[in-house]
Design a protein that fits this description.
The chain is built from 5 helices and 30 strands. About 15% of the residues lie in helices and about 35% in strands. With about 475 residues, it is of the alpha+beta class. A 5-stranded mixed β-sheet has the order 2-9-8-4-6, with no helix packed on it. The longest helix is centred in the first third of the chain and has 35 residues. The N terminus is likely disordered.
Length: about 475
């Protein structure tokens, strides 16, 4: 019996030991598992990975989700973060100071913890810039366009307060060009429009001023123009009918190509009071026709100075000069026809029938071979003719727009004879001509339109 009791007690003790051992092993295993996962269970995350600010002072916040401690760091002085540290979940604040530069800048905010180092990129735009290359634009009365240049680092819009002044494009971003266009002003008063260029925070204005329409002067009034600081006058020539060619006062000096005489009727026009001067040529063209060319340069031997006639200009040079002059003035200058040249040289409707332009005595009105010392002279230093025009005899030959042809006896009205590239007519004689070559009916010609000589210049005509 006693032995049986001891056996039962031993079994009970063994069961208790095994139970305690299993329980401890289970607890140890659980603790080991918990201890092995303690670091991987630390977490930290942010609700954003970037923040954007304008150029102004600014503040924004972000949320931190964590179960561990953390520190906040910024790599830029202009970007401050608070608080500097914390633990578990929290809210952090980013403060940026004003960006006074036009360039965008960036900073990095770091959230340092045992669970990781997430970052936020901070971007702050530069201060807006917007400038124009002009504050005013001036236009003549005719329609026209000009370019306005905009410098900017942001988007902008352009508007005009007047329908006659338009712009294109009306918006843009960054640097750009805007075309400002105006319609023709047909009124007798000048006008002004305002163009506004604005971004989100900057606005600039441009004043667009347009001249009034120039009233057409009543015929009979001479007209004066100033181009590049050089002033010149155009003489009104009232139209009329005259006999062209070898009229009786020309006598035996007349050449065969001045015959037969014939009747010509012309409309009103204007003619240059003087030959085109070197000063006017440079004001229009920016320089002489053949600079640095040696023999073809203007020089003191052939006459040099603003008030000397322009020479060494070809027929083609003359067309280029007139084209540019018309763009500068908005007028319709051109070469004289051969008939217009002779009518004006004879004195127009005021003609007294002189052999030369303004006199029967050549020395009174012309620089020619016998008195010029073989050089050009300042324009207007001899007597004018009946219309107040100078140097139509002598000094330099003057190109006409007509191609050279033989005369016929048929009457003509406003005759023209322009054929491109054909033989070009020149009139009036020059400083090296004999007297016979300076008569009002004398005709000369040149085969090449690009030919140029020290003896040949130009006189302007202007449409009425």
């Amino acid at each position: 019996m006693r032995k049986k009791l001891l056996t039962i007690l031993s079994v009970a003790l063994l069961v208790q030991f095994l139970t305690v051992s299993c329980t401890k092993e289970t607890q140890d295993r659980k603790e080991a598992q918990d201890g092995g996962n303690s670091e991987t269970n630390l977490v930290i995350s942010l609700d954003t990975d970037n923040m954007e600010f304008t150029a102004e002072n600014g503040t924004k916040s972000f949320n931190i989700k964590s179960n561990t401690s953390w520190k906040l760091l910024s790599n830029a002085d202009w970007c401050q973060v608070s608080p500097s540290s914390g633990s578990n979940n929290g809210i952090a604040t980013v403060r940026v100071s004003m960006n006074t530069l036009p360039e965008t800048r960036t900073a990095t905010v770091l959230v340092v913890s045992e669970a990781g180092v997430p970052t936020i990129t901070i971007t702050q735009s530069g201060v807006e810039t917007l400038s124009l290359d002009a504050s005013t634009m001036e236009f003549a009365s005719g329609s026209g366009s000009k370019i306005l240049r905009i410098s900017s680092n942001t988007s902008w819009a352009v508007s005009s307060d007047c329908s006659w002044c338009s712009i294109s494009p009306t918006s843009g971003n960054g640097d750009g060009n805007v075309t400002v266009s105006v319609d023709e002003n047909t009124s007798t008063t000048s006008r002004t429009a305002t163009i506004t260029v604005e971004s989100a925070s900057i606005s600039h204005t441009l004043a667009v001023m347009q001249d009034s329409a120039t009233p057409t002067p009543s015929f009979g009034q001479d007209r004066t123009f100033t181009v590049g600081g050089v002033t010149f006058k155009m003489i009104a020539v009232e139209g009329g009918t005259f006999t062209m060619g070898a009229t009786s006062e020309q006598g035996s000096d007349a050449y065969k190509n001045e015959k037969p005489i014939h009747s010509v009727t012309l409309s009103n026009y204007y003619i240059g009071q003087m030959e085109v001067t070197q000063g006017l040529w440079v004001a229009v063209m920016g320089g002489e026709p053949y600079p640095n060319s040696g023999w073809a340069e203007w020089n003191s031997t052939d006459g040099l100075g603003n008030n000397y006639p322009a020479y060494h200009i070809s027929f083609e040079n003359s067309e280029g000069f007139i084209g540019r002059l018309n763009k500068m003035t908005g007028e319709n200058f051109r070469m004289l026809t051969e008939a217009e040249w002779e009518f004006a040289a004879r004195g127009g409707n005021k003609s007294r029938g002189y052999k030369y332009a303004g006199s029967n005595y050549i020395n009174e009105v012309a620089w020619y071979a016998d008195n010029s010392s073989n050089t050009t002279h300042i324009v207007g230093t001899k007597l004018a003719n009946e219309l107040g025009i100078y140097d139509m005899s002598g000094n330099v030959w003057e190109w006409c727009s007509d191609t050279y042809d033989s005369y016929t006896s048929n009457p003509q009205i406003n005759p023209t004879n322009y054929r491109y590239g054909d033989t070009a007519v020149r009139r009036g004689g020059c400083f090296s001509s004999i007297g016979r070559g300076c008569r009002v009916s004398c005709r000369e010609f040149t085969f090449e339109w690009d030919a140029h000589f020290a003896q040949v210049g130009l006189r302007l005509a202007l449409e009425y």
